[in-house]
Design a protein that fits this description.
Layout (H helix, E strand, L loop, with lengths): L1 E2 L13 H4 L13 H17 L1 E4 L5 H14 L4 E7 L21 E8 L9 H7 L1 H11 L5 E2 L7 E6 L5 E4 L6 E7 L7 E4 L10 H8 L7 E2 L7 E4 L5 E4 L9 E6 L1 E2 L4 E2 L2 H8 L4 H7 L11
Antiparallel strand pairs: 1-15, 2-11, 3-4, 4-6, 5-14, 6-13, 7-12, 8-11, 8-13, 9-10, 9-12
Helix pairs in contact: 2-5
């Protein structure tokens, strides 16, 4: 990702924040309150522990139904793709590494994403994503000064779609953290699983990663996520997947809220093509200014 000199604007709200979040339980509009500080500290403790925090039932039930309807209405715009890829989103054999190695271990990723340009300003999902109060609450949980809505026109506000039979296999994120809201859960499968901090900036931990890719369960954590839960996840160093949704299950839908520490950030061309099947001029322009923040494979 890279940053461009573009301000972040917040469109007028057509839904009240109080209609979307129970502000008595999670008073994100009152950061001076004891309840706010308690929620932030609970999330910080989880994130410090294994890089994953769950804000249970953040979205009110009636708002959750609205979010679900908005996803279903936009589902025809989903870009579905099925690829075999390694945990670093690479799809081709690398002769610099042995065959029995995570770089040359390819698993199926079959899922879809509703792109950012499918959401009109003012819909409930957009209002929740762009609420400055939520962004500041998340920043406080992550112990950073501030967050900005990801300026990428396709990957800022999205929804991940896992229809029956699909899975989002083991992988790492290119960003330091991800924020998701589970909207519709699968009846069978569709479980979020991760191996906390399996690698770091100095050690790729290929042996442990290969163990997991081959079905090993050492260190694997399976989350008990429910619709309405918000998840903050540090996926740069933790291998993670959403397991296959059973063929006879309801689909799994999750809203993805992408934020960045700097304003005006645009995503990578290669990853954008993989997830959305297209790029826009903004992606091409940002690629010319790309600067890596670490030396990990990806």
């Amino acid at each position: 990702m890279t940053a461009l000199d573009a301000p972040t604007e917040h469109p007028p709200r057509s839904h009240r924040l109080a209609d979307l979040i129970d502000l008595d339980v999670y008073p994100i509009d009152r950061p001076e309150s004891d309840a706010y500080h308690a929620a932030v500290e609970a999330a910080r403790e989880q994130l410090r522990g294994d890089g994953c925090a769950i804000i249970k039932d953040l979205v009110k039930p009636e708002a959750l139904r609205l979010l679900s309807t908005e996803i279903v209405d936009r589902k025809p715009t989903t870009h579905f793709s099925t690829q075999t890829m390694n945990p670093y989103f690479h799809t081709e054999h690398n002769a610099d590494y042995p065959d029995h190695h995570p770089v040359n271990t390819f698993l199926e990723r079959s899922s879809g994403f509703i792109p950012g340009d499918s959401w009109e300003a003012g819909c409930a999902t957009d209002v929740l994503f762009r609420a400055p109060e939520l962004a500041q609450f998340l920043a406080d949980c992550l112990e950073i000064p501030e967050l900005h809505c990801y300026a990428d026109p396709l990957a800022g506000l999205t929804a991940n779609i896992l229809d029956p039979g699909q899975q989002f296999t083991w992988h790492f994120d290119t960003n330091d953290f991800a924020v998701t809201v589970l909207v519709d859960e699968a009846d069978k499968g569709g479980l979020f699983e991760y191996v906390p901090n399996i690698r770091d900036a100095d050690d790729e931990s290929f042996e442990h990663i290969q163990h997991v890719l081959e079905g090993g369960r050492d260190g694997v954590v399976t989350l008990d996520l429910r619709p309405g839960d918000l998840q903050i996840f540090r996926g740069r160093y933790s291998l993670h997947q959403v397991s296959r949704v059973s063929a006879d299950s309801a689909p799994r839908h999750a809203a993805i809220f992408a934020y960045t520490e700097k304003p005006g950030v645009i995503g990578r061309v290669v990853r954008t093509r993989q997830l959305f099947g297209r790029i826009l001029p903004e992606h091409e322009a940002a690629e010319q200014e790309r600067v890596r923040s670490d030396d990990l494979i990806d």
